[in-house]
Amino acid sequence: MEPGEREGEGADAAAGAAETADPERLKALSHPLRRKILRRLAAHGPATSTTIGEALGENTGTTSYHLRQLEKYGFVEEIPERSAGRERWWRPTRGPRDVRMPAAGSLAAADRPVLAEVLRLGHAEDMALLSRLPEEYERDREWARLSRGFTHMTREGLAEFFEGYLRLLREHGFGPEDAPPDARPVHLRLFTLPADED
Questions:
Q1: Dihedral through CA 147, CA 148, CA 154, CA 157, nearest 10?
Q2: What is the spatial distance between Cα 72 and Cα 61, in angstroms, rounded to a whole number?
Q3: Antiparallel, parallel or unpaired: β 6-9 and 98-101
Q4: Contacts of 55 (CB under 8 A, 6+ apart)
Q5: What is the tens place of the pLDDT at every residue in 20-74?
Q6: Which of 26, 62, 107, 124 has its CA 20 to 30 A from that of 138?
Q7: Which strands sit side by side in the sheet containing 76-78, from one edge to the other?
Q8: Which CATH architecture has domain 6-172?
């Protein structure tokens, strides 16, 4: 997911983080077109349902409906000063940019499939990005950077490392409306897996 937010998983949301534990809010993120709309707004800044529809190959009625659903659950907001008549301008909601998925055990059994679908969609998006890495790395190493790591950590140390990574994103990142002219939208991913299960 890339709605102009940093997505993380974990039950311990840090200060400034917002956990998406509401099942209805999770359902809003489980629709592929809504995720594309969020990524579009995060990468290219404010847009109307018409301009988003043109960019994504969808009709305006469809994108308008999904924008209203995203607004209902707090992921996007209208920009009243830019909207006029029937033309409404949208942007990612301002506020916490670190949105965390709940632990599966914190959800009712009936809501866990929704979380699984959100994570499945995110995994598919991540795999599509990963498949682009060799070509992008060859084209422009200044923007396509990579690192592979291996170390031993304690549970507490790993949690601290993760929070430090998110602090660096907040320190060095910009939203689409406040980015300097030489900034580009950049996909960033961090995941950790225990190696003793290999």
A1: 10
A2: 17
A3: parallel
A4: 40, 44, 47
A5: 778 888 899 999 999 999 999 999 999 999 999 999 999 999 999 999 999 999 8
A6: 124
A7: 47-48, 89-92, 76-78
A8: Orthogonal Bundle (1.10)
Tell me, what amino acid is at 31?
A: H
Query: What is the per-residue pLDDT across 93-105, written as a single tens digit (0 to 9) for each?
Result: 876 556 778 889 8
Element (H, E) at 36: helix 32-44
118 within 8 A of 30, measured Cβ to Cβ: yes
**1 close to 37: Cβ distance less than 8 angstroms:** no
The answer to whether the CB of 96 falls within 8 A of the CB of 85 is no
Q: Helix 112-139 crosses helix 32-44 at what angle (to 10 degrees)?
A: 40
Residue 8: which H helix or E strand, with range?
Answer: strand 6-9
Residue type, 18: A
Secondary structure class of 57 (helix, strand, coil): coil
Cβ atoms of 37 and 66 within 8 Å: the answer is yes
User: Roughly what angle, to the nearest 10 degrees, separates helices 60-72 and 49-56?
Assistant: 120
